[in-house]
Amino acid sequence: xxxxxxxxxxxxxxxxxxxxxxxxxIAKGDLKAHIDVVVSDKADARGLQAAREHHLAxxxxxxxxxxxxxxxxxxxxxxxxxxAVDLVCLAGYMRILSPDFIRLFQGRILNIHxxxxxxxxxxxxxxxxxxxxVKVSGCTVHFVDDGVDTGPIVLQEAVPxxxxxxxxxxxxxxxxxxxxxxxxxxxxxxxxxxxxxxxxTTHR
Length: 204
Ligand code: GRF
Prior knowledge:
This protein is an alpha/beta fold. The chain has one domain (7-203): Formyl transferase, N-terminal domain (Rossmann fold). The chain has six helices and nine strands; from the N terminus they run E-H-E-H-E-H-E-H-E-H-E-E-H-E-E. The chain has helices at 17-28, 46-53, 69-82, 99-104, 125-132, 167-190; strands spanning 6-12, 33-40, 58-60, 87-90, 109-113, 136-143, 153-160, 194-197, 200-203. The strands form two sheets. It has a seven-stranded mixed sheet, with helices on both faces. Strands 8-9 form a two-stranded antiparallel sheet. Helix 1 packs across helix 6 (167-190). The structure holds 5-O-phosphono-beta-D-ribofuranosylamine (GRF). Residues 12, 14-18, 47, 91-92, 112-114, 175, 178 line the site of 5-O-phosphono-beta-D-ribofuranosylamine. 5-O-phosphono-beta-D-ribofuranosylamine binds at residues 12, 14-18, 47, 91-92, 112-114, 175, 178.
């Protein structure tokens, strides 16, 4: 661990607003960590551009240049290992991770999901919440295991669903809460304030 805290590697595929929120908390000194590398499977991801503007190391890994998901993930894993990251944070990363990658970073991969898991895993969580008619949704930060959005939950925050909500409006309100939740979960994990016991996490 260096003087400015432990090392984070970010994986993203798109806009990167969660990545930016984490970077802002680090810059403010709220989160004692540093982002060593931002990796994307999309050359034109807005988040990759934002990372360059933050003067961070960025790597585009081209899925087409790898024969299989396992090979692609192996390449990504090598990059994260070369940067000696302590924690891998998925921030809008639109790929399912291969079992080998999950094993390599066992208990050291976090994801943020725009629903109160285990409700509405997978894609379009906000649309699923609206279609189901729930009155409360929210966001979840969880460890990544080999299921889709199934790993032990670190933190959750509820967001009310309003009668006149659209998918866009609900997504926007949830996203605002995501930005305040993810860095807190990272802080808990990096400062070893939580323990994983079976499928539960508990505060030490
Ligand atoms: C967020 O809603 C996050 O919960 C989900 O993907 C979206 C990423 O948004 N996993 P951004 O790229 O961080 O703006």
